[in-house]
Design a protein that fits this description.
61% of the residues lie in helices and 0% in strands. By secondary structure, the protein is mainly α. The termini are far apart.
Amino acid sequence: MVGTIVHQLTDGVDAQELEKAGLGAYYTDHGVGVYPQAAAGWPWNAATIAVKGDPIADLQEDLAAEQKARATYEKLIDLCKDDQDVIDPLRFLREREVVHFQRFGEALRGVQDKLAEKKFYMNNNNDMKCR
């Protein structure tokens, strides 16, 4: 959705305006297409995905990712000033991150509760009859 917003805001803008806005290098490499990268210009890569294979560690990473996304949307909203056509979808996305954070928190509590349960092992003597 953010990519669509960026595309809509830059569609039809000429190269000189993009250059004046400090987007000349980006325009040279990508035109007005959306290329996933950090605000500082570093391209996205899979190194940002943290998976350990441990349910508690992975859910903690998910929680952190949702908070980082929420914070990013808040900063984008701050940058947009009074453009409601941009702010409204960003607010929706921010709220969605909050809900995702809540659901991951619920999942983490469920996993922690399950791991804390006392284990019971039962033996069915009928299966062990001698013949």
